[in-house]
Amino acid sequence: xxxxxxxxxxxxxxxxxxxxxxxxxxxxxxxxxxxxxxxxxxxxxxxxxxxxxxxxxxxxxxxxxxxxxxxxxxxxxxxxxxxxxxxxxxxxxxxxxxxxxxxxxxxxxxxxxxxxxxxxxxxxxxxxxxxxxxxxxxxxxxxxxxxxxxxxxxxxxxxxxxxxxxxxxxxxxxxxxxxxxxxxxxxxxxxxxxxxxxxxxxxxxxxxxxxxxxxxxxxxxxxxxxxxxxxxxxxxxxxxxxxxxxxxxxxxxxxxxxxxxxxxxxxxxxxxxxxxxxxxxxxxxxxxxxxxxxxxxxxxxxxxxxxxxxxxxxxxxxxxxxxxxxxxxxxxxxxxxxxxxxxxxxxxxxxxxxxxxxxxxxxxxxxxxxxxxxxxxxxxxxxxxxxxxxxxxxxxxxxxxxxxxxxxxxxxxxxxxxxxxxxxxxxxxxxxxxxxxxxxxxxxxxxxxxxxxxxxxxxxxxxxxxxxxxxxxxxxxx
Length: 478
Ligand code: NAP
Ligand code: G3H
What we know:
The protein is an alpha/beta fold. The protein has 14 helices and 26 strands. The termini are far apart.
């Protein structure tokens, strides 16, 4: 018998009145690892009502007082590090060492959020800068919380990407309704156990578990929600944006990050960056390198280097810290296999891979991929990397920008002027020059444009997105 986890409602760990639970399977053993509550709409109402009430008092505390709870959360998270990592590993199939790193990275993120938040001092303006204005008018511009933040997180970083929303929200004086991905909900329960142990006042963080397809729309459309911070797939993002009322939205969605490789690049270095960028955690990262646009004059050499490295990748169980692990579920593995099959049917060259055992897809490298193939455009979220050979920088830029997605891109070259020139023309939230695509360090702004999102994350940007400016004007009379 596995454990049935409860959900946190106004300071109490509760079973749902629905009497329904959701079974969470392990992606690599397929055995149930536990059950989470499938909560009801009435419980969602209760959670939002409780959060609204708790937020009022929380916002009146000093930021240092609010920070004191988050410091305790860091301590509790680190004290539970191995326990949480074990759950992440079993629930989302992430290598154990990477799962430990996810918890440590989360502790660092919360700490940095506190340091950033306590140093955000607002600004002041004097009236005399404007024609006809006077020094006797002074505006104090401060940031105030929005109220109740709905934080919806994806499966692949069930702790870190949830905390990236929860910490800035709480620090800024908001309450949070946290809806974890269902496959990731036990990790969510565990990290919130740590927050509960830290003594966070009741109602400030209510954890709502249940399928997005069942309670998602109800949450998103709820009039008690003042802002939505969502990370997940593009289709879900579009759906949420179409349902949300007039509340601010931050959306971090899918990607199809290109690595542009110029003729003059250091190819051994590039191969290493591409391998870790494309294949770590089986490519289940929004920022994974998902296509290579390489100059045809160096393509053969790069493909040879990549083949050697891909064939060295370890494949197997997350418990043994393998790089290539089974994908999150069968539907995802079928989807990746469909992209590979489509490319091969259309005469892409199979360099290595295309082997499957259940949900475990072996690392696959496809050469001579053309823009007619689905794998040139669709996000696999799996370990398959297409190589598209290009004749020029211009062609690489054109194909890079034709994508619906716009998360990140990498440019590899020794010519720094060309690097900047290409970076300026690429339509993504960030461009990495001579480095793999990645989100961290977590205080950098993290931005998806086009189908990759709207708004920005990154610690300071997250605090800003969860607050609004308030202007208080003093009129000094002599
Ligand atoms: P997903 O299927 O879109 O789910 C994301 C979250 O949305 C889950 O919590 C899900 O709950 C919830 N949800 C589903 N339907 C909803 C609805 N109608 N209303 C409200 N919430 C709803 O994504 P995923 O499979 O977990 O994650 C993989 C995707 O996320 C990839 O596309 C990846 O690129 C993207 N991602 C982007 C970033 C970024 O920062 N740009 C980071 C990580 C991942 P359930 O689990 O209960 O369905
Ligand atoms: O999956 C999306 C994450 O934001 C990627 O983060 O680049 O640190 O793996 P990462």
